[in-house]
Amino acid sequence: MSALANFFDSSTLLAHGTCLFWRPDLLWLHVFSDLAIGAAYYSIPVALLLFLARRQSVEFTGLIGLFAAFIIACGTTHFFSVWNLWHADYAAEGLAKALTAAISVVTAILIWPMLRHALVLPSPSALEQINDDLSIQIRERSAAAESLRQSEDRYRTLYNRSPAPMHSLDAGGRLIGVSDYWLTMLGYERDEVIGRHLSEFMVPRSAVRFQESHWDEFLAVGEVRDEPYEFIRHDGQIVDVLLSSRLERDQTGAFRQSFALLVDVTDRNRAEAALKREREFSELLVRSSPQGVFAFDRDLKLTLWNSALERMTGVNADEILGRRPELFGDGYGASGVLDAMESAINGRSVTIADEPFVFSTAGRRGFFEATVAPVYGEAGIILGGVAFLHETTEQRGLEEALRQAQKMEAVGQLTGGIAHDFNNVLTIVAGNLELLEMRLTDRPDVKRLAAAASMAVSRAERLTQQLLAFSRKQQLQPEPLDLNAVISGIRDLLRKTVGERIEIDFRPGEALWQSLVDRNQVESMLLNLILNARDALPDGGRITIETENAQPRSSMVLGLPPGLDSSVLLTVTDTGTGMPQDVLDRVFEPFFTTKPQGRGTGLGLSMIYGFVRQSGGHIVIESTEGTGTRVLIYLPRALGKMVPDAAQPHREVSLGRGETVLVVEDDEAVRQYACGVLDDLGYRVIEAETGDAGLVATETNPEIDIVLTDIVMPGLLDGVMMAREIQKRRPNLKILFTSGYSDTQPQEGGLVSSANFLKKPYRPADLAEKLRALLLASAT
User: What is the mean pLDDT of the chain?
Assistant: First the structure.
């Protein structure tokens, strides 16, 4: 620090003015000269800095800045010279000169390389020549620009006044030009659209498609044609256009602009849409028509096939359009439709009534009415034809079913009445035979005769049950059944029944629904069907049993009752002799049989028919003589769960204990038989012939413990009506109903139930069991 202080110490030094002896003329000469030089030096850098600030593109700016610093340093030394005239600060002046020297050396070093570059710069004459050349180029470019402007003006005039709507887009899809017709079409002013994205004038779905697919595809391909878009007019109306665009690139291949032409197809689209709606409506009328309609050309090839025909024939339109309808000429009926089509091509209309048909695809046969007419074009030329088909199968089937139902109902009433009377007789015969057997323990020879008579009575009972089955008056116990399990359970029995020469092929349906039917009647029905099939196969053959879930329609199955749209189908098919049509028409008639004398009763199919109809099902038999028979049975589907069989408990039959029984029966023989049995069983008996007499007996004999009554009786009160009146007066009095034929079926929870109903013919043991069960129930 002391060295530095000594360096700047000027106390021993004399001011420079001393050397001039403080002469005023010399002193002020130096002052003014140094101040003038210093001020000049300081002004030069300022001018240079202003020049660089306004001419930033000047080369050698760094060197110029260094030169400005050198000049400022030089000017500073002159200011120190003026200072040192009066002050001896030679150290500071020396440092300023040293800084100036350093800057001067650096500037001198750098200026020589710069000189080589500076010499390259054009001289004033060269600059003048360059300036002249530039002036010529500017004039030429101005002329070219003017020519281009005039050309662009002409182009713009043509572009704007073009009779077609056009626009130009930049690389971002924004409008840079539109024609007047474009503006007119969409109702905008030019300044409202220029610079806006084209998608802003589209409906949302068109805008999304333009932005997401069209524009990228256009940039890649360079051209698109007739792209459909929906634009929005200024007033909100929709305009349908076809947009065709072409991309224009510059010499480098970069995007320059795109040109697009728009075609307004709004009116055309609306006309086409109206025509399409009209055509679709017409086609809808034809296709939804309940009548079958088809059209064909001059080569008889189909051009229209409506849905009604699809349902009728089972053939879809796409399977048959463009082909000749050969199916109308196949099989059963040999339909005359093809001939009628030929006639239509020749200019004649043809009407066909009750034409039979069979379609292999639909797998059914039936009848229809048809009208086939020619179709004319311009100048009366026949282009083809059209046919209207109305199926009469169901109508004919309903008429036939009605006739058959009336016939079967009449026969059923007859057979039911016979069975009712026959049951009364069998009740007496069977009961007395059982009593006789009980009393002939010491006469075995006579007892054998009674047993043989009892066996004959049992056969008569089965015959009566068959009659009741046909008349649909038998007592059924329907339950949910697995038909596959039922058939599997009796398959061995069926095979033993038909013998070794006949094969039984059982094809169980998968995931089979349960059917609501009586198990015993189903087994009996199957056995009867197998026996019939066996008799139709004298030389052996095959019987096929099939089960499946079915959802039949009344239009497909003749006579199908309501409620069977969800059913279980049992099909039994044989390869036997088949049946002619006249036999097929009578197969369900009771006692009708084609078997030799003594080989059958003619009640097998009648019983099956009655059971199926009483169960709410439907049966159809198809047969062709010489090819075999197929029986289709539709059984109602059970919606409840299947209940497994329960073992029947053993029931003890007890004798009476002196109770009083009122017997109400209009048939005297049956009444006497019942009274005799009850007397033997240990009961006191009171008789009544009619329901009216029975009601009076219950009022005058309060000791009566139970009533045994027939259901069907003459007079004002039948058995059920009498029972209702008795229950009003004596509600705790038990009543046991009995009948061999009745429209009143036992119903659980009703007045007549399985607990208090005894079917005729009945045995003494049956009567004793029912009476004792009811009396025990009343005691508890």
Answer: 76
Rounded Cα gap, residues 608 and 764, in angstroms: 31
Most confident of 41-55, 387-401, 517-531, 566-580: 566-580
Whether 660 and 654 have beta carbons less than 8 Å apart is answered as no
Least confidently predicted of 85-99, 167-181, 182-196, 569-583: 85-99
Two structure tokens written together for 504:
């039984």
Give the Cα separation of 566 and 185 in Å (integer): 62
H-helix or E-strand containing 496?
helix 491-498
Cα–Cα dist 462/442, whole Å = 31
Torsion of CA 121, 122, 127, 130, to 10 degrees: -100
Which H/E stretch holds residue 244?
strand 238-249
The Cα 253–Cα 272 span in angstroms is 42
Residue type, 186: L
**In this structure, how many other beta carbons lie within 10 angstroms of the beta carbon of residue 205?**
10
In this prediction, residue 546 carries a pLDDT of 93
pLDDT, residue 498, reads 79
Helix axes 393-439, 444-470, angle to 10 degrees: 160
Closest CA to 521 of 649, 646, 635, 422: 635
**Does residue 70 contact residue 44 with C-beta atoms inside 8 Å?**
no
E strands, 448-525, are: 479-481, 502-507, 515-517
**Angle of CA points 155, 160, 163, to nearest 5°:** 110
Query: 305 near 312, Cβ under 8 Å?
Result: no
| Angle ∠(80,83,85) on CA atoms, nearest 5 | 115
Tokens of 688: 């009544």
SS3 168: strand
Reported as type and span, the H/E element at residue 691 is: helix 691-700
Question: Three-state DSSP class for 557?
Answer: coil
Q: What is the 3-state secondary structure (H, E, C) of 316-338?
A: CHHHHCCCCCHHHHCCCCCCCHH
Query: What letters, b where the CB count within 10 A reaches 16 and e where it falls short, cover 258-269?
Result: bebbbebbbeeb
pLDDT in tens, 518-572: 887 788 788 888 888 888 888 888 899 999 998 877 656 666 777 777 888 999 9
* pTM of the shown model: 0.34
DSSP-assigned states of every residue in 86-140? T---HHHHHHHHHHHHHHHHHHHHHHHHHHHHHHHSPPHHHHHHHHHHHHHHHHH
